[in-house]
């Protein structure tokens, strides 16, 4: 019988939600304040408008991250205290710096190009930005497993043994073509478990956390790993990465021109010179973020539906009892709540673990 640690989970997740609410308030205040001072900041910056846009976003981004950092530090310390993280503070901060550098490398040229497009195509820039954002999303999806993920976590191809044999047999039974099944070295940084299907085309692969697989000589843990792998194969079989990109394409096609329209009617104190003015970028980001909230709920709903479909596939390809046991072990190791609060469930990308375990047990006895 697996101890699901629900008292610990509720305490940990409740504190995490409180930090999240405070961090959200601080984020909104920082963005609004940034919009209000952006005009004066832009006047003090050198160079043409696209360059000033990148510099302005860099300055405001540093301020934003400085305000967010205390919440992140408290969160890391809480995860260490709860036994979820085994990462030192220096290693954790190093990963955060890597994230900042990646965001700068990708984001600063993007905002410079956005302002250039706004000035070149005053009426059509939202659609040019929409197309460019989709191309960037696809490129990142393709390269992330081979260029970005290795910066944070090591992985290796499954070597010979029971786990490798199980994976090969399961992939063969599914009839799918998978370029690689890799073991993600999560135990170097965390005790939490996870698995995922990542990449597109030649970079598509399935990742199994080494904290999930345990001792591959243990038949029960091997059966659980088989059920989780079957779930990840389902995402591959159902084309869920493409489904997610498709939904993003549709929603962002609405969001870009809608946010542009809102920017055009915002007061001068926030919007400054409007589209094409570097000082208008914080106001545009605020408008886009607020308008994206309901679309985010739609994306979360779609993700939950795809997770339920992947679970059902796993029951058929593996078995429901093993999947239920794997979910229970994930609940315990990740300090997850079986049934989190309603708002958390609505915003979540996965169904509540309690629901998934019940459905798996029901399938096992059907």
Can you describe what's shown?
The protein is mainly α and 366 residues long. Helices cover 72% and strands 4% of the residues. The chain is built from 13 helices and 4 strands. It has helices at residues 6-44, 49-81, 89-120, 125-148, 162-174, 210-213, 219-237, 240-265, 268-271, 281-317, 320-334, 342-347, 353-365; strands at residues 155-157, 181-184, 195-198, 205-209. It is globular, with a radius of gyration of 23 Å.
Ordered list of secondary-structure elements with their pairings:
Elements: H1 6-44, H2 49-81, H3 89-120, H4 125-148, E1 155-157, H5 162-174, E2 181-184, E3 195-198, E4 205-209, H6 210-213, H7 219-237, H8 240-265, H9 268-271, H10 281-317, H11 320-334, H12 342-347, H13 353-365
Helix pairs in contact: 1-2, 1-10, 2-3, 3-4, 4-8, 5-7, 7-10, 7-11, 8-10, 10-13, 11-13
